[in-house]
Specification:
- This protein has helices at 2-25, 53-66, 114-120, 148-154, 215-223, 234-242, 270-279, 282-289, 303-306, 318-325, 342-357, 393-404, 416-427; strands at 32-36, 71-73, 79-81, 84-89, 95-100, 130-133, 136-140, 161-162, 173-174, 178-184, 188-193, 206-210, 229-231, 246-260, 295-296, 333-337, 362-366, 381-387, 432-444, 448-449, 465-466.
- By secondary structure, the protein is α+β, with helices and mostly antiparallel strands.
- Residues 1-22 have low confidence and may be disordered.
């Protein structure tokens, strides 16, 4: 009898332990997630154009949380229904029709109409207006565009948002899983769960985004469990990993590159531009400054997207740089960087040291503004960041055009060989000089569950839940 009782107690204890373990890992609703980011957003107007790279990255994350897109991508990069439940096109992939999901509401409770969505997407495809047709949207893209749904799922301006009457910079409303509940410029954004979200209420009650924090401060808060998710720089990410912290790494989605200002007389000499490019030790930049994250790059399209980036040389050739420099007596050149980007400053300083080895002087100084498409920023060469995250090669080509001025005429739907040849021509005059490809680095706290970001860097926080804080 005693042995039977002991067996019963043992089995009961085991079942209780299994039950408690399952309860501890079962998704549940509630909690506020604390997120810390680099950018200090001065406006939550997600329809505006950002002033620097960190702000662009932050606004894209914000768009994804408060606004839906017609189409979303699954973890393999395939288009899936979102605000549009279906779409069709003609044989030429020029005329598109998107049928909208019924019963969707804006955050203020008003119903979404096709006319609303057409107005929100106006200008997304230049000179090609959207039109409402009952419960559907129609557009003529003007030329064949087989991957148009991928563009709608990834383009920064493709989130469906609506501005409300109010002061400049007032938060827009969307149809997404979260709504803006609090806004403190450059300091904090609080997002509350959209209880009526068509895709189901998010697990989180709220997301509190702390802005303008340095990478060191973000790591400290992660260590002290004051943050659940934090953007990290390479040095802080390496330290966090060495200390056993969770660090998520995307594929390389950001390109650091030099862009020469050809309106300046000093940089019109191709030999000088090539000499600077040949003098750069990309491998050392990737190993030391990037802490072995990312990869050296001589191409604007990353290897994981194109498959041919390895064909562009990345090795330093100091002898060739010195030979190109011989016979010239160049004046000192001014190398500018985004003052809000600590990594850009470090890389710019390393490039200047490398160029000095070839007998070329680069004076490093912060740009008067962010690096966002200024025609003449007063410098001879700028160190810029570009977001090239695809996740398809065609979309990456369009991103290279937007960030770097890469010519895309005739390349939409082009063969791999055509894209490679166009990239080779673009880089052969050394006006743009790729340096390194950088991944997105995110520190995750121990309470974060069901983190399932795709490899190209989207944060799908509507799927995340937090383990209940222990008393």
């Amino acid at each position: 009898m005693r042995r039977t009782v002991f067996r019963y107690l043992a089995v009961s204890s085991l079942l209780l332990a299994v039950s408690n373990g399952a309860a501890a890992t079962r998704p549940h609703y509630g909690e506020t997630m604390i997120v810390e980011i680099e950018a200090g957003l001065s406006s939550t107007d997600a329809s505006g154009r950002p002033g620097d790279f960190a702000e662009a990255r932050a606004l894209n994350k914000l768009r994804a949380l408060i606004g839906d897109r017609l189409v979303r991508l699954d973890s393999s990069g395939r288009p899936q229904p979102a605000l549009a439940i279906s779409w069709e096109h003609d044989r030429a992939n020029v005329k598109w029709t998107f049928k909208l999901r019924p019963g969707v509401s804006w955050h203020d409770g008003s119903g979404v109409t096709a006319t609303d969505v057409a107005a929100a997407l106006e200008g997304l495809v230049p000179d090609r207006p959207w039109s409402a047709a009952g419960d559907a949207l129609e557009i003529d893209t003007g030329s064949p565009w087989p991957e148009f749904p991928v563009y709608l799922a990834t383009a920064p301006g493709a989130a469906v948002l609506r501005k409300l009457a109010g002061p400049p910079g007032a938060a827009p409303i969307g149809t997404g899983p979260f709504r803006v509940a609090e806004w403190q410029p450059s300091r904090r954004v609080v997002l509350a769960a959209n209880e009526a979200y068509w895709g189901g209420r998010p697990y989180l009650d709220a997301i509190q985004i702390e802005m303008g924090r340095s990478s060191r401060e973000r790591l400290i808060d992660l260590d002290l469990d004051k943050a659940d998710l934090a953007e990290l720089g390479p040095a802080e990410a390496r330290r966090a990993q060495q200390e056993g912290r969770r660090v998520w790494t995307s594929v390389p989605v950001e390109l650091l590159a030099l862009q020469f200002n050809l309106s300046r007389p000093e940089t019109r000499e191709r030999r000088l531009r090539e000499a600077i490019a040949r003098s750069i030790d990309r491998a050392a930049i990737q190993k030391v400054l990037l802490q072995n994250y990312g990869e050296p790059s001589g191409a604007i399209l990353p290897e994981w997207l194109s498959g041919f980036a390895f064909l562009f040389a990345t090795a330093r050739d100091l002898n060739r740089a010195r030979l190109l420099r011989s016979g010239m007596d160049p004046s000192p050149l001014k190398l500018g960087y985004d003052p809000s980007d600590a990594l850009a400053r470090q890389v710019a300083e390393r490039v200047a040291v490398n160029a000095r080895d070839a007998g070329i002087r680069l004076d490093v100084s912060p740009l008067p503004q962010g690096p966002a498409h200024t025609p003449d920023s007063g410098v001879d060469v700028s160190l810029i960041r570009a977001r090239i995250d695809g996740p398809t090669l065609e979309q990456a080509v369009l991103q290279c055009s937007d960030w770097l001025g890469f010519p895309v005429s005739g390349l939409r739907g082009g063969a791999l060989e055509e894209i490679y040849a166009a990239e080779r021509r673009f880089l052969d005059d050394f006006t743009t000089v790729p340096l390194v490809n950088v991944p997105e680095l995110v520190g995750l706290g121990p309470r974060v569950k069901n983190w399932s970001a795709p490899r190209w860097g989207d944060w799908r926080l509507e799927d995340v839940w937090l383990e209940t804080a222990k008393p």
